[in-house]
Amino acid sequence: MLPQKRGRIPSRIAMNCCWKVLAIFLLLLPSALSLQPAQSRVLLVSFDGFRWDYIYKVSTPNFHYAMENGVHVKQVTNVFITKTYPNHYTMVTGLYAESHGIVANEMYDPILNETFSLNKMDTHNSRFWEEASPIWVTNQREGHKTGAAMWPGTDVKIHGFFPTHYMPYNESVSFEDRVARLIDWFTSEEPINFGLLYWEQPDEMGHILGPENPLMGPIISDIDQKLGYLMSELKKAKLWGVINVIITSDHGMSQLSSERLIELDQYVNRELYKVIEHSPAVAILPNEGKLDEVYETLANAHPNMTVYKKEQIPDRLHYKHNRKIQPILAVADKGWEIVYNKSDGFQFGNHGYDNILPEMHPIFLAVGPAFRKNATKEVMNATDIYPLLCHLLGINALPNNGSFNAVKDILAEEVPVVFGADTYATIVGVFLGSFLVIVFIAVFVKHFIFTQLNTMQVQHTEAAQPLLQD
Ligand SMILES: [Zn+2]
């Protein structure tokens, strides 16, 4: 009896080990297959000057299709000043303008004694951008690839980085060509995980026509068709429903009138100051020793213009602590324009006003596997877009003025893992590899048990013989 008992012990231990190995494997398999952390691919799209309520002005079936399939945030508070460059840089840094340093479309740096001008396309001086580090720099430092189609700042070397792929800014490149490049980058052998797409409209026509002009209808319809084109191309490339797409803008637009002009020449001698950034948030650089004189003549000049010395700018605007913010800021009320005099050119639409005004707020939609479907959220801040993007990309957010917690409710409860062809290959590889390991262990254990049993039987026979002789 003894040898039989002793023979069962190694057999049980071996079988237990085998079952344990199998159980651990089965427990670990799902997590091994679940794409490690929540990394996904993201496309960030900006239609410049697309006001939040344009989708209700005319039929916009493609925007509504995206809303039904994703999340719509009704009011996004962008940053002051509500201009193009400051807000595009906020979306990719999570910082207020005073912190990321792109404080206006037109800037003067008194330390560098250098200027920056969107109007003159003089925007490539890295030093204006390097107070912050945009998301593509972090993305690439963490080993990923970025592709940018005309997004402001993406053709500038910032902290030694360009995006992995980018298009030098050229307004004449069509929307379709920009989309084609992005899809190439998302589907190449070494794909990007993050794409940025910028389109100049409906901002340009909003300035020319004014947002309340009925002729804006066809302009908005055209943007809707462009969104439809983007979605259909993503579907053709099998990226729709796989990548996460955020469709937003930098600011809205207010209707102007030739009846609502504030003429600086009526109040102060033009020889005493320079205008750095233009209406409706006018950055004024007084000549040396003329600060008080210029300020005092303008301070109560017009009931629809608020004039601040830099240190008086309200904290809620987060627009004070930067050397590129000029000594005097004059801000027009909604719908008013600040000019030298009436002979200046006139436009029917503008933006740049207080970011508390809904007319300054952009559209925001988010569609893709990470987001809830047919969901709405009332409010968010544009600074929250950056931590949201970092979460989606699975990269570390740098210190910022946004909050991921403030927007995590737009995410689906559990982010579905969408497998690409590569992932399927990985899964099959892991499964087959694991299967072979188990078969090997089973064969080895079986062989080990038989060897042990045979050895023990021989030993028992040898040990038993003397006893029998007794
Ligand atoms: Zn504009």
UniProtKB/TrEMBL annotation:
Bilayer topology term: Single-pass membrane protein
Example GO molecular function: hydrolase activity
Family per record: Belongs to the nucleotide pyrophosphatase/phosphodiesterase family.
SUPFAM superfamilies for the chain: Alkaline phosphatase-like
UniProt entry tagged with the keyword Lipoprotein: no
Stretches that traverse the bilayer: 424-445
Signal peptide bounds: 1-34
Subcellular location: Membrane
Record's protein name: Ectonucleotide pyrophosphatase/phosphodiesterase family member 5
Alphabetized InterPro entries for the sequence: Alkaline_phosphatase_core_sf, Phosphodiest/P_Trfase
Keywords: Glycoprotein, Hydrolase, Membrane, Metal-binding, Signal, Transmembrane, Transmembrane helix, Zinc
